[in-house]
Design brief:
The protein folds into 2 domains: 6-181, 3-Layer(aba) Sandwich (Aminopeptidase), CATH 3.40.630; 185-302, Alpha-Beta Barrel (ADP-ribosylation fold), CATH 3.20.170.20. The chain is built from 9 helices and 16 strands. It has helices spanning 22-31, 33-36, 49-64, 110-124, 140-148, 177-181, 191-200, 206-210, 220-230; strands at residues 6-7, 12-16, 69-75, 78-89, 94-101, 130-136, 152-163, 166-176, 185-190, 202-203, 214-215, 237-242, 251-254, 270-273, 277-278, 282-287.
Length: 303
């Protein structure tokens, strides 16, 4: 199979691993060996550059046989880790993601961003239906990745993982393509406020100052009801389509603000963003024009 090169952003690239990367990758593993082997057995098998080359050849054969692929995580021009599909089951349409990162580059969101890009590639380019990630139950840092990306915790697998001869419970996470595509949340604003946000580099709704959070909607139906409750007849509105996995501030699902008339509240929860909205989380902007009577309908893209 073709092993992709994925440009996540200006600083972060995922490139197919080749023998050319062997010296740099071995040096990285050797430098962070004690850290990596806390939750992995494989660092003990990479004792010299020859072992690294053998592993890369195995990875290349896996890709050639259409069983998966491995990508080097490149950040600001340096190799800092690896991510890929441990296996692909084409018959069932699912695959498992594996990853590791040098300790020196933790806390930058690199694995989350890399996983997001690999997931998008798997669902859109490979037409897979389900992605999985396995983590030792005690590996809190690794578990945070699938949880942040909206994976479902399928429950512990008791004593499933053997790490340096000690058995650990393992957590299996899964994410369906349908759930991934339905992850979007929405925010109503004006064209002028959005223009201002692009000039200053972030979006800050008035409610962020008065209430401490930005109001969002979980689906098109909520967008329509909020628009008709608050903005009837207003003609300069747009809807920001937000990917919650890209947000840099806390997101909570809570009851709507009390200023929303009671007849428009049916008891469901609404997403609230506790901080400014980073612009790279906005994947699309949709016009929200009123009808002739001033009432809003759900935009086609939100249905």
């Amino acid at each position: 199979m073709h092993t992709p090169t994925i440009y996540v952003d200006d600083e972060l690239h995922l490139i197919p691993i080749t023998l050319h990367h062997a010296p740099e990758m071995f040096a990285l593993i050797d430098r962070h060996r004690a850290y990596l082997r806390q939750w992995q057995n494989w660092p003990d098998t990479i004792r010299d550059i020859t072992n690294m080359q053998q592993l890369i050849r195995q990875n290349r054969r896996k890709a050639a046989n259409h069983h998966g692929f491995d990508l080097v995580i490149r950040y600001q021009g340096r190799s800092v880790g690896k991510i890929g599909m441990v296996f692909i089951d084409w018959r069932k349409g699912n695959a498992e993601i594996g990853y590791w990162l040098a300790q020196s580059h933790e806390g930058l969101g690199l694995v989350t961003r890399s996983c997001r890009a690999v997931i998008e590639y798997a669902f859109t380019e490979l037409d897979l239906s389900c992605m999985r990630i396995r983590c030792a139950a005690s590996n809190v840092r690794s578990r945070a990745i699938p949880e942040r990306l909206g994976f479902k915790n399928d429950g512990p697998l008791p004593y499933q993982a053997s790490i340096h001869g000690t058995l650990h419970d393992e957590i299996m996470y899964s994410l369906s393509r349908k759930h991934w595509q339905a992850r979007m949340i929405y925010h109503i604003t004006t064209k002028a406020e959005w223009d201002t946000a692009q000039n200053v580099g972030e979006y800050r709704a008035p409610s962020l100052e008065t209430q401490g959070f930005i109001h969002l909607s979980a689906n098109g139906d909520q967008v329509q009801r909020v628009a008709n409750a608050i903005y009837t007849g207003q003609s300069d509105l747009i809807v920001l389509c937000v990917d919650p996995t890209r947000l840099r501030q806390p997101l909570k699902h809570e009851p709507p603000d009390l200023t929303v008339p009671a007849e428009h509240y049916t008891g469901e929860l609404f997403p609230h963003l506790y901080g400014p909205l980073n612009l790279d989380a906005v994947l699309d902007v949709v016009a929200l024009p009123p009808q002739a009577d001033g009432i809003f309908s759900i935009p086609e893209k939100l249905r």
